[in-house]
């Protein structure tokens, strides 16, 4: 899975840095990525960055970033750090978990 | 979703991984099931974390098996600090790649769940930690924390099941800890998943005294002790006391050891106690039990042997001072390291802890005699049954090691007869009873040997005197009203001395009389003998005279005949008729 970044017009000064932790290309991981992408496009268009970390290739990051469940989405910026686990299929909960202000 | 690099390792049945925890390997016949997960459960503060940490540390340092500790509750820093007080240096072990500590932080408020997930992250972390040091042992402490951190129990359960299976496939010996739950061993019923070996730790407080116990609830495919074993956690770590596994298999000795009081040795068949036997010394307050104990300690040290003295009533300094007053100086033995006095209040800690410390000290210093003064004080921290059970184990330990044990039992007023407060008399080989005898306005001490297995012992009551030169046993006097002691005994002794003196005088008198008579008779004999001699010499003289007379007569006749024959020529007839006569 390749890293993907999205750049858009900065409507807000806030730049969102999101990391999605997965372990191989499992259906859940793929679903999570797709769901995440959808949410970001909808709410954070143009001001988000998604980094995908495959723990199978970087297992040491699991400890470093305190990852337990797969898939886990970590909002690294803006502070504070927030975590959402699961395939993000419930958009409402995912948006709430990421603390995206829905205008 | 298999973890790369993991190879299923099949292990033989019944192969065990020694924990290195004192006593635990004995009750489980070798340790935890190798290559399988075991469950260690118990309520908060019962020592689960320490048990599992020691399992890892000993595995790494003693059995060459590196380990991974996954902490769900404590951070690495906290763990390091907490076990440092028990002598484990985790940082050092981590540096040597013998140990990995991984703190998994789960906080529900920080995590939002949406949709499907699994715990692959945990598997990867664990797998990475295991592979990075080639770990053979894994601890998950306490995995149930996940249930409070994550809200989907169905996912958790299936993931845990998968985790335990995965651990088995990895071939690591795992310890999973779990909090004690209502009506089941763990809150989340982990025992359903980990069914090979389940160990229950318990921490009870009875009468404000805490006791820790361990029980092997289940051990598939292995024999194990089923009792509740007391254990303790001290600065040497965790130790289980498998003393209940001891049986009556100890050897016996015919060797005798002195009780320290010569006259008491005499009562015990002339030689004292059997080495390795258990001696009960019971009596009411102030009957000299401690003094007798001190004598025994002194005698033991005098032989150059070590003695352990557990005192529950007096401090070491007090014992030494008090014994000096009866002419016993214990200080040199203490200085030489032969005598160790351990003074503690019974309430200091629980019964099991007492037993544990005693056992530890006994095994460490390997004495030839152990004195407990008094065992009855342990009643303060345990019920009669508990104290009795503890003593059985202690007696077994002492007998197994061939150590002579002297147990002092303090009987409270009125019950100084043939029963002890804690029903321990049947455990004992020799039972000495010290009792006071109130008579004639005095209180004196009497002592007798109630029983002494395997020896010909005295059945007499002796008066027990504590003098400035130590203990002495006196024969008691039996008067018309019973046993006489103290001043009544002295009076009786006086009377008997008088009577003896009188008898002696009478004898003297008779002897003198007899002598006089003998002398008189001898004089008579002499006189009679003199008479006999006179008679005899008279007789001899008379015989001599008679002989001489006869000789003279004969010679006169011859001369007459001669003169007659000269005259024959003139008177022939006369001479003829004279010759025919």
Can you tag this structure with a few keywords?
heterodimer, A: 103 residues, alpha+beta, Glutaredoxin, five-stranded mixed beta sheet, 28% strand, disordered N terminus, B: 581 residues, alpha/beta, Rossmann fold, 3 domains, nine-stranded mixed beta sheet, 15 helices, 25 strands, 24% strand, elongated, disordered C terminus
Tell me what you see in this structure.
The complex is a heterodimer of chains A (103) and B (581). Chain A has helices spanning 27-43, 60-64, 91-98; strands at 4-7, 16-22, 47-54, 72-77, 82-85. Chain A is an alpha+beta fold and 103 residues long. Chain A has a single domain (4-98), classed as Glutaredoxin (3-Layer(aba) Sandwich). Chain A has a five-stranded mixed β-sheet with strand order 1-3-2-4-5, with helices on one face. Chain B has helices at 24-27, 48-62, 76-84, 90-95, 120-133, 145-149, 153-170, 262-267, 289-302, 316-324, 331-335, 351-365, 384-400, 486-566, 572-579, and strands spanning 16-17, 32-33, 37-42, 67-71, 99-103, 111-113, 137-141, 173-179, 197-206, 209-219, 228-234, 237-240, 256-257, 273-274, 278-283, 307-311, 339-343, 369-373, 404-410, 430-439, 442-452, 462-467, 470-475, 477-479, 482-484. In chain B, strands 5-4-7-8-3-9-10-11-12 form a nine-stranded mixed β-sheet, sandwiched between helices. In chain B, strands 17-16-18-19-15-20-21-22-23 form a nine-stranded mixed β-sheet, sandwiched between helices. In chain B, strands 1-2 form a two-stranded antiparallel sheet. Mean pLDDT of chain B is 83; it is low at 1-12 and 574-581.
């Amino acid at each position: 899975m390749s890293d993907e970044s999205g750049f858009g017009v900065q409507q807000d000064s806030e730049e969102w840095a999101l990391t999605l932790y997965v372990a191989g290309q499992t259906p859940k991981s793929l679903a999570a990525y797709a769901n995440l992408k959808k949410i970001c496009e909808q709410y954070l268009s143009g001001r988000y960055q998604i980094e995908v970390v495959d723990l199978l290739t970087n297992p040491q990051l699991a400890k470093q970033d305190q990852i337990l469940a797969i898939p886990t989405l970590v909002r690294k910026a803006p502070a504070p750090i927030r975590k959402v686990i699961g395939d993000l299929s419930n958009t409402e909960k995912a948006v709430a978990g990421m603390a995206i202000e829905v205008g | 979703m298999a973890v790369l690099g993991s190879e299923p390792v099949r292990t033989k049945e019944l192969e065990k991984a020694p924990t290195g925890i004192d006593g635990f390997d004995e009750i489980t016949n070798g340790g935890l099931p190798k290559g399988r997960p075991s469950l260690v459960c118990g309520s908060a503060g019962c020592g689960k974390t320490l048990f599992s940490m020691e399992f890892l540390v000993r595995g790494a340092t003693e059995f060459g098996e590196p380990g991974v500790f996954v902490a769900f509750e404590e951070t690495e820093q906290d763990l390091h600090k907490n076990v440092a007080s028990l002598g484990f240096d985790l940082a050092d072990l981590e540096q040597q790649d013998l140990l990995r500590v991984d703190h998994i932080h789960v906080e529900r408020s920080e995590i939002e769940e949406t949709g499907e997930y699994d715990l692959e992250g945990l598997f990867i972390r664990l797998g990475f930690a295991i592979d990075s040091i080639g770990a053979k042992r894994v601890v998950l402490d306490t995995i149930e924390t996940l249930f409070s951190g994550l809200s989907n129990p169905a996912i958790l359960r299936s993931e845990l099941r998968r985790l335990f299976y995965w651990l088995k496939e990895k071939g690591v010996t795992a310890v999973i800890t779990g909090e004690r739950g209502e009506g089941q061993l763990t809150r989340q019923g982990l025992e359903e998943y980990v069914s090979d070996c389940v160990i229950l730790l318990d921490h009870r407080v009875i009468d404000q005294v805490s006791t820790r116990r361990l029980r092997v609830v289940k051990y598939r495919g292995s024999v194990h002790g089923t009792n509740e074993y007391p254990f303790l956690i001290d600065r040497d770590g965790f130790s289980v006391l498998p003393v209940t596994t001891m049986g009556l298999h100890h050897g016996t000795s015919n060797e005798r050891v002195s009780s320290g009081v010569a006259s008491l040795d005499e009562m015990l068949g002339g030689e004292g106690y059997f080495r390795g036997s258990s001696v009960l010394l019971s009596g009411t307050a102030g009957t000299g039990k401690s003094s007798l104990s001190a004598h025994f300690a002194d005698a033991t040290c005098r032989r150059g042997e070590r003695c352990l003295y557990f005192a529950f009533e007096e401090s070491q300094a007090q014992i030494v001072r008090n014994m000096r007053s009866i002419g016993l100086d214990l200080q040199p033995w203490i200085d030489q390291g032969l005598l160790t006095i351990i003074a503690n209040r019974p309430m200091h800690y629980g019964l099991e802890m007492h037993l544990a410390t005693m056992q530890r000290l006994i095994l460490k210093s390997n004495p030839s005699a152990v004195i407990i003064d008094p065992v009855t004080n342990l009643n303060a921290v345990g019920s009669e049954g508990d104290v009795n059970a503890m003593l059985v184990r202690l007696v077994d330990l002492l007998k197994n090691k061939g150590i002579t044990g002297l147990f002092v039992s303090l009987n409270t007023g009125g019950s100084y007869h043939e029963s002890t407060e804690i029903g321990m008399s049947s455990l004992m080989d020799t039972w000495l009873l010290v009792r006071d005898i109130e008579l004639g306005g005095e209180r004196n001490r009497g002592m007798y040997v109630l029983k002494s297995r395997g020896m010909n012992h005295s059945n007499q009551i002796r008066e027990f005197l504590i003098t400035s030169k130590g203990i002495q046993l006196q024969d008691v006097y039996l008067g018309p009203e019973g046993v006489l002691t103290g001043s009544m005994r002295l009076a009786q002794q006086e009377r008997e001395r008088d009577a003896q003196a009188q008898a002696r005088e009478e004898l003297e008198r008779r002897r003198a009389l007899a002598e006089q008579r003998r002398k008189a008779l001898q004089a008579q004999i002499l006189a009679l003998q003199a008479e006999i001699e006179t008679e005899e010499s008279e007789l001899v003289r008379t015989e001599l005279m008679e002989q001489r007379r006869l000789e003279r007569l004969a010679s006169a006749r011859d001369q007459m005949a001669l003169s007659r024959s000269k005259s024959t020529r003139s008177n022939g007839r006369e001479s003829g008729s004279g010759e025919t006569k």
